[in-house]
Amino acid sequence: MTTSLLERITIDPEICHGKPCIRGLRYPVGFLLELLSSEMTHAAILEDYDDLEAEDFLAVLLYSTQAGEISIGKAAVISGYPKRDFMEMLGKNGISIFAYSPEELRADLEL
């Protein structure tokens, strides 16, 4: 992965009233987070929205974690990655887990 997944998140005042979206498409991060949190599988979402890519889902989860909209633990569960692997992915994409208190990290990781 040579570029950060977060580069897939764009903010343009001309698109969706400046809400963060995927790759300049008219899919706000919040909408995709709702889809990912629903009972829909990733494959079903990709089938319904054929201009999305699997990496877009990870970008949404990373962005939402960084923005504090979702916990690391919940994002890891939604992504399908083990929590520690998801945390490593956060670091590789420039997102620090140290903004969390030790208690929040323990709760997210269920330690």
The major beta sheet can be summarized as:
2 strands, antiparallel
Low-confidence stretches: none
How many helix segments? 6
Over all CA atoms, what is the radius of gyration?
A: 14 Å
Per the principal axes of the C-alpha atoms, what is the gross shape?
A: globular
Q: Beta-sheet strand percentage?
A: under 5%
State the order of secondary-structure elements, H for helix, E for strand: EEHHHHHH
Walk me through the structure.
It contains six helices and two strands, in the order E-E-H-H-H-H-H-H. The chain is globular. The chain has a two-stranded antiparallel ribbon with strand order 1-2. It is 50% helix and 4% strand. The model has no long low-confidence stretch (mean pLDDT 86). The protein is mainly alpha-helical and 111 residues long.
Kindly summarize this structure in a few lines.
The chain is mainly alpha-helical and 111 residues long. 50% of the residues lie in helices and 4% in strands.
Name a few traits of the molecule.
two-stranded antiparallel ribbon; globular; 50% helix; single chain; mainly alpha
Show the helix and strand layout:
Layout: E1 9-10, E2 21-22, H1 29-37, H2 42-48, H3 54-66, H4 72-79, H5 83-92, H6 102-109
Antiparallel strand pairs: 1-2
